[in-house]
Amino acid sequence: MRSIRLYHRNWGVAIAKGVLKTDDWKTQLNDIKEAEETLKRQMDQYNTQENKIWLRSLRETVSALARRHEDENDKRCLSDLHITDPYIEKKNIEENKGGLLKDSYKWILDHADFQHFRNEMQSGVLWIRGDPGKGKTMLLCGLIDELESSSLAPISYFFCQATGGSRLDTATSVLRGLIYHLARRNPQLTKYVRQKYDYKNNIFSS
Q1: Which Pfam families does the UniProt record give (predicted)?
Q2: Structural domains counted in the chain
Q3: Is 79 found in the same domain as 40?
């Protein structure tokens, strides 16, 4: 098991070094993603928490390298798409409410409904209801942190807020926020947004 893990770890280092040396980023990016998927499939049979953490670190490294190679068109597209950054909004909410305490939400992590939502592919929606001021927002902040720390899949979210005007409470804002969040954290997805954006530059204002 240890030798297999070291083999995968050294392979990941080789991938990262190859990325740093190449001048043809766009040509190599797909190869990197294919190698990452191959690595993930091979590691599924050794599904330890340490491997999950290491693979997540590799994905973050590749994403960081991809961000460094964004061309000006990608940056302009994301700039026009941007209406709010859900990550920053989440941090602002936590700070305004005095910080996030794990004791305030850890109870739900073992709840049957959350476990079903988390583990079943067809679980659909986890609906959390409650009166205003009962802690739903901070509960969701905690759940987001938990999912981000334990899931290999990218997480995207958006907080609707009545005090933010049309920037934070319309269907268009929600969709733009989700797409922006996904594209910023997974730069390889920007090309799919660009397919529409390049055809009609003012697509986000129409």
Answers
A1: NPHP3_N (PF24883)
A2: 2
A3: no
